[in-house]
Design a protein that fits this description.
It contains five helices and five strands; from the N terminus they run H-H-H-E-E-E-E-E-H-H. Strand 3 and strand 4 form a beta hairpin. The radius of gyration is 16 Å and the shape is globular. A five-stranded antiparallel sheet has the order 1-2-3-4-5. The chain has one domain: Nuclear Transport Factor 2, Chain: A (Roll). Helix content is 35%, strand content 17%. Helix 1 packs across helix 4. With 150 residues, the protein is of the alpha+beta class.
């Protein structure tokens, strides 16, 4: 279970990506697109609106990468996200299950079955997409994928 403060890492990462992304061509091609890394996906999980709300309340989140033959691990990093600093642990500490698309940097809330949308997540997705040459064509090609194998 990962439970650590990533604020410094997020700021350092976004700063580095922002400076390197400014020199990239404006129309990357699908053949140049690179998958995002596990660390990139962790940063997106750290910025979940649910995580920010828990930190506002003096708590924090932790996460664990999920592996199962029923999950599309080729195209997604799938995380079990928990409240790691709840003062009185009674009942479930699960915040939810979230999947990060390796091709698009989209974050999928598996409980709600919808994309996670927030200004912070969107800002980092934009940086990651520029840094990994993920353009509209790549996003269109891979966005319809889902984390479960059916």
């Amino acid at each position: 279970m990962k439970t650590k403060s990533h604020i410094f890492r997020v700021l350092l990462f976004t700063s580095c990506m922002a400076s390197s992304a400014t020199t990239l061509p404006s129309k990357p091609q699908i053949s140049r697109a690179e998958q995002i890394s596990y660390t990139d996906a962790e940063i997106l999980v750290y910025l979940l609106p649910q995580a920010q709300e828990l930190r506002r309340q003096g708590m924090d989140i932790g996460w664990e990468l999920q592996t199962s033959p029923a999950l599309n691990q080729t195209n997604f990093y799938i995380f079990w996200v928990v409240n790691s600093k709840r003062p009185k642990v009674e009942g479930s500490v699960t915040v939810g299950y979230f999947a990060v698309n390796k091709h698009t940097a989209d974050v999928w809330d598996q409980g709600l079955e919808e994309f996670v949308v927030s200004p912070d997540v969107a800002a980092v997705q934009s940086i990651l997409r520029r840094g990994h040459h993920i353009g509209a064509e790549t996003i269109s090609s891979f966005r319809q994928m889902r984390p479960e194998i059916k």
